[in-house]
Each structure stands twice: as C-alpha cells, then as structure tokens.
Amino acid sequence: MRARIYQPAKTAMQSGRAKTREWVLEFEPTARMRLDPVMGWAGHGDTQGQVRLKFGTEAEAITFAKRHELDYSVKQPQERTMRPKAYADNFAYSRRVPWSH
Description:
The protein has one helix at residues 58-67, and strands spanning 2-6, 23-27, 34-35, 42-43, 52-55, 71-75.
C-alpha cells in the first residue's frame, strides 16, 4: 500500500491558519471511481481511501508508516511569503494606476 504524508494547505474559506499545523497520512487510491448503476453516485470498493490519519509532527507520521510497513512519500509544505502592505499605498502618487472613482 502507498501512502502520502503532507501538511494541508490553508483553505480559501478561512483567513486563519487553523488545521494547517498538523501532518496528514492518507492512502493513495488503488482503483478508479465508478458510478453506481442504481443511484448514480461515484464511489469504489476501496475503503482505504476513506482513512485519513492526523499527526502532530512529520516524524510521528513517518514512524507510523515505517511501523506498519507502508510505502510512503513525504510532500514538504511550501513556505509562506508575506508581502507587507499598507492601506496608504492605495493613494500614493507613485501608484502605477491612478486611483479614482
């Protein structure tokens, strides 16, 4: 079985960094999704795709994968770049596009 270990990114629906500090181990899908002929829902018989384990650190997730003899890959998170901004910059004379209404 193959597993992915990663730190989730911030969702677009929140301004904070909640739920992005923990590490997640999830199994890669082994089969394609197929439509149920009766209901029309998409799904497959692989229940490992529903498993999502959360860990406090990357080392804990790797230790878990090694202990259970899982083939795993680790995806490192991208570093967040902060660009300082000021409200006064909207009205600066050196602004490329003049501000007007």
